[in-house]
Amino acid sequence: MSARKGIYNAPWEKSFDRILTPLEEFIHRQTTSGVLLMICAIAALVIANGPLHTQYEHLLHTEVGVSAGNFAFSLSIHHWINELLMAAFFFIMGLELKRELMVGELSSPKQALLPIMAAIGGMVVPALFYVAVTINTPGISGWGIPMATDIAFAIGALSLLGARIPKNLITFLIALAIVDDLGAVAVIAVFYTESIDLVAVVCAGGFTALLVVLNMVGIRRPLPYAAIGALLWVAMLASGIHATIAGIVVAFVIPIRPKFEPELFINRVKDTTIQMKKAITDNADIIHNTRFRGLVASLDDGARLVQAPAQRLEHSLHLPVAYLVIPIFALANAGIPVNFDTFGQYLQHPIALGVLAGLLLGKPLGIAGFTWFTVKMGWAELPDGINIKHVLGVGLLGGIGFTMSIFIADLGFTNAPEDLLMAKTGILLASALAGFGGFFWLMFQTRQSPTNGPEEKQTH
After folding, report:
1. What are the extents of the domains in the chain?
2. Alpha helices in 160-259 (DSSP H)
3. Nearest to 38 by CA among 439, 444, 445
4. Whether 141 contacts 194, CB under 8 Å
5. Residue whose C-alpha is closest to residue 176's, from 459, 406, 397
6. How far is it, in rounded angstroms, from Cα 133 to Cα 406?
7. d(Cα 355, Cα 422) in Å, to the nearest integer?
8. DSSP for 98-167?
9. Residue 4 has what pLDDT?
10. Residue 342 carries which DSSP code?
11. What are the distances in angstroms from CA 285 to CA 165, 278, 281, 292?
12. Distance separating alpha carbons of residues 217 and 208, to the nearest angstrom
C-alpha cells in the first residue's frame, strides 16, 4: 500500500514512476517532435551514405503481405509506411483540422480569413516559382512539392524561441499549417492520382456513407469506425486514389460533440458518488460487491460520454503518430545517397532548383505577401502582438517542407528515381535553410521584446 492513504502501488511501481516522469515531461514538450524528426532524418542520411546502404534499400523493398489460397496481397515495407502508417498521420491531421473548423481558430470566418489567405499564398506562389524554373522539362510534374509545410518542424523551431515570440504567432502558424495541409491533401487527391478504378471508387463511397450513418445514429466508440475505415483504406488503395486520404475521411465523420453536457455529467457524478458510498458501506468487499462495480462502470461510461470522441482520439493518438509514425517515415524516406563531388551539379538540376526556389523564396513571399494584401484591403486584422516582420519569419519557417514535400515527391516521381533524388535533395537542403533562416530572423526581430507583451501592429 502507498504511503498516501487509499492508493495501492505494485512492488516496483514507484521506481518506474520516478524513471518515467522526466521522460513523459520531455515528450510533452512541443519541440520534441521536431527534434526527433531531425535525428531520424540525419540517421537516414548517414545510413544511406554508409556501409549499410545496400541493406537499407533491401529492407525498404522487402515485400510483406498476407495470402490465403489463391488470394495474395503484399506491399513493400516502404509502401506500407507511405500508404498505411501515413494514413494514421492524415487521420490526426484531419482531427486537428476538424477541431479548428468547429471550435478553433478557423471556426469564425473573420478569424479564419487571415490564415486561409496566408496559406493560399504559401501554396500558390511556391508552385509558380517551381513551374517557372522547371517549365518545358519533365520535372514540372513535381509542382506540388513546395506547396507543403511540415507542422512539427515549423512549430518546433518557433517554440525554441520561447517567450520572445508572441503567443498569437504560434496560433497563427498552426492555423496556417492546417489549411496548408488541407490544400496538400486536395492536390494529392486531384492531381497525383494516375488512374481510377470506378468499382473501387463506388466501394469507397459506400464505406464512406456507412461511416456517416454511424455518426448520424450516435455511435461513439472507435472500433466500428476503425473497422470500416480499414475497409475504406483497402478500397482507396485499389481505386488509385491515394489510400492515405482514407485517414482524412474517417477523421471528418468521427463525432466532435460529446453526448453529455458538463453540468449533466457533474450532477450524475454527485448522485453516483452518493450511491457508491452507500454500496461500499453495505459491503466493503469490492471484489464481490456487484452494486459498487456497476456504479463504477456507469461512472466510467459517463466520463467517456462527456468527452468528444474526436478530441479523445486526437489526444490518445497524437503521441504515437508524432513520435513513432512520422520518425519512421523520415527514416524510410530521407535516406538519399549524396555524392559530394557532384553535389554542385545536383543543385543545378531544374527540379532541385525549383524546390529550392519554391520553398525558400515562394513560401515567405506568398505567406507574407497575401497576409499584407489581406490586411491592407481591410478584410482582416493582424492578431495582437504580431507585425508583418513576424509573419515573414513564419513564412520562412513555412519553407520547411520535409514530411509532406517528400510524400508528394514520391507520388510525382514514382517511376523516375533520378528525378526523385533531385527533389529530395532540394527538399532537405531547403528545409534546413528555411528552418535556420526563420529561426534567426525571428530571434533578431524579437531581440528587443523578449516578453509576450503587445506590440504595435505594422503592415508596412
Report:
1. 31-192+242-257+308-445, 262-305
2. 167-191, 198-216, 222-239, 245-253
3. 439
4. no
5. 397
6. 19
7. 9
8. HHHHHHSTTSSHHHHHHHHHHHHHHHHHHHHHHHHHHTTSGGGGGTTGGG---HHHHHHHHHTTGGGS-H
9. 56
10. S
11. 56, 13, 10, 10
12. 15
Which distant-in-sequence residues (6+ apart) come within 8 Å of 152 by Cβ? 33, 34, 37, 322, 326, 403
Map grid coordinates 509558380 to a residue: 128
At the second CATH level, the architecture of 31-192+242-257+308-445 is: Up-down Bundle (1.20)
pLDDT higher than 60, residue 360 = yes
Quick check: 243 and 88 in contact, CB under 8 A?
no
Give the pLDDT of residue 31: 54
- How far is C-alpha 286 from the geometric centre of its chain's CA atoms? 44
Give the helix/strand (H/E) hosting 63.
Answer: strand 63-68
What cell numbers appear for 148 in the block? Answer: 507543403
Residues 6+ apart with CB under 8 A from 157: 34, 397, 400, 435, 438, 439
Q: Which of 3-17, 34-48, 298-312 has the lowest mean pLDDT?
A: 3-17
Distance CA 72, CA 325 (A): 26
Backbone angles phi, psi at 71, to 5 degrees: -90, 135
Buried b vs exposed e over 22-48: b needs ≥16 C-beta within 10 Å? eeeeeeeeebbbbebbbebbeebbebb
In whole angstroms, give the CA distance from residue 249 to residue 456: 42
Supply 162's cell numbers.
Answer: 520561447
The pLDDT-based confidence of 445 (bands split at 50, 70, 90) is confident
